[in-house]
Amino acid sequence: MRNDGALRIKTMRMKLHHVGIVVDSIHKQAERYQQFLGLSPVSAVVTDSTQRVNVQFLAEKAGETSIELIEPLPGESPVRKALEKGGGLNHLCFEVKDIEEAVRGAEANGAICVRTPVPAAAFDGRRIAFVYFRGMGLIEFVEAEGK
């Protein structure tokens, strides 16, 4: 049964931007994604020292929804435990016009904000934020270009 009284942001438009995958080696896994799924790099490998990861985006062509390969940097990294458990699917990322509103709306719907908005190297300084929904998992928001 649909609950029309559920809290939601009626004006918020979200677009699936990418799916984040934790890997042990971007180089090794990018080759596998290209060989088996026909996905090619649409970005360089970017080091994000704030997130303590290297990332690279793969897709059939630039501008499409992509896969983000996430490789933890040596030492402490927020994705190290995920890799120790075998890696794989980590999060879904949605592009939003107003990242603050997206986080507030997620929290109003029971999410826990695990990373407040911060500039991200992989997005030329556009901000990202992470929220966690029990039963849904980790969701990332990335600020739309031109914000």
Q: How would you explain this protein's 3D organization?
A:
The structure is a single chain. With 147 residues, the protein is of the alpha+beta class. It has a single domain, classed as 2,3-Dihydroxybiphenyl 1,2-Dioxygenase, domain 1. 18% of the residues lie in helices and 40% in strands. The protein contains three helices and nine strands, in the order E-H-E-E-E-E-H-E-H-E-E-E. Strands 1, 2, 3, 4, 5, 6, 7, 8 and 9 form a nine-stranded mixed sheet that branches. The longest helix has 12 residues. The radius of gyration is 16 Å and the shape is globular. The N terminus is likely disordered.
- Give the topology string: H per helix, E per strand: EHEEEEHEHEEE
Distance between the termini: 37 Å
- Molecular shape: globular
Question: What is the CATH level 1 assignment?
Answer: Alpha Beta
Count of beta strands = 9
| Mean pLDDT over all positions | 91
Which CATH architecture? Roll
Give the oligomeric state of the chains in this entry, treating copies of one chain as homo and distinct chains as hetero.
single chain
Brief summary of the model shown:
The protein has helices spanning 26-37, 80-84, 99-108, and strands at residues 14-22, 40-41, 46-48, 53-59, 66-72, 88-96, 112-119, 127-133, 137-143.
Considering the chains and any ligands shown, give keywords for the structure:
147 residues; 2,3-Dihydroxybiphenyl 1,2-Dioxygenase, domain 1; single chain; alpha+beta; nine-stranded mixed β-sheet
